[in-house]
Specification:
The protein is elongated. The chain is 50% helix and 17% strand. The chain has three domains: 63 residues; 98 residues, Serine Threonine Protein Phosphatase 5, Tetratricopeptide repeat, CATH 1.25.40.10; 174 residues, no CATH class. Helix 6 packs antiparallel against helix 7, helix 7 packs across helix 8 and helix 11 crosses helix 12. The chain is of the alpha+beta class and 392 residues long. The protein contains 13 helices and nine strands. A hairpin with a 4-residue loop joins strand 8 and strand 9.
Length: 392
Amino acid sequence: MSWALNKWKIFALFLIATSLVWFLLGFSFIAYCLATGIDFFFGWILIFGAPCSLAWYIGYRCIKKSQLPVKGVPTRPKELPSIERKVPKTESINRKSTKAAFDTSLSKSSNYISEALSIIDSHVDIYLGGRYVVRGAGSEGPVMEATRKFKAAFQLYPENPLLHYAYVSCLHLAMQYKSAEDEMRKCAETHPDFILARLALEGWKKWRSMFLLPPWGIKTKSVHPALSRMIKTGVLLPVRDGIVPRATFFMRDVQGAFQNLQALRYARITLSSVISPVRDPQVIGIYAKIYDDPSNPYDVEVLQIPFRPRGDQIRAAYEYLCIQKNIDFAIIDRNDRILVNKRLPIPRNMQTTNDKIFKMLKASDGIEMSTSQLVNALRRHQQKFSLSDIRY
């Protein structure tokens, strides 16, 4: 007898016992009503109510399932004909072996990636202003060993463009520039919809490996020193989350504006992109509104001119933003303590604006820009644009 059948019988016995209690209560209530002259309609409900009927029905079902002979009820045949297609033993074995091979490949790929990232983290130092030091580059150095591990992971999943991109990025990090360019072309040709490869080729002269970006992700617990020095107020920066280059919205809480950290962690945050009326050079604004205090939300403004030469890191941050479906939003205090680190979906209005910005970036080769040009353009934007003009 199966566990399910035993469970049914126990449940049926319980309901039968319950119905007997209701039955006795009903008779007691009727006797009380007769003695006091009260209408005893509810007594009949207690006696002949649903619990009794349901219990006897379940009991009947259990007797039928147990295949006990009940008069007038035909017993169920011992075996029912199978309606499923019989799978040959060889096919079953092939399925199991295919699944086992897939699991093994996935495990191997993950191990290769973890080992490669560990080598890179121990041999690459990233500093403020895009400066960096790569120890062990060259065709026989440890960085090339990381490259071989990425290649092995990619060969396990050759249809994955991101693994191909990671392999190329590591080739570039190992100073194998010609091989990296050839592989990037193969990646773009094999996966024409993979935008990162196209962007890299378009700005190849200034393009840099994603492994020269500071690390940041939704599980990050500490701020990389290079990020710490770049985050002064609000800023959009290119970062690397594992083997994925991304744009992240950072804010530095210098004045200690957020005292209620509990409210801040659960606060609603809205985002918006703005194409500025200042067009020479074209200014782009990224805005956030933080509802830690719903009656007085906190506004954050990030202004930048991303129309730099192709391959430039500032431009890359906005290109990443435009092709992302979500964005990490982080608030850091003056001591580099992470107050908030959320991955927010990009709202529809913002995505529509981002699509327009991306088209503008595709159409522009960009220009080099001095600090004075940048400051002047941003000042003109703030004179012409008001926070009340933002559509969240």
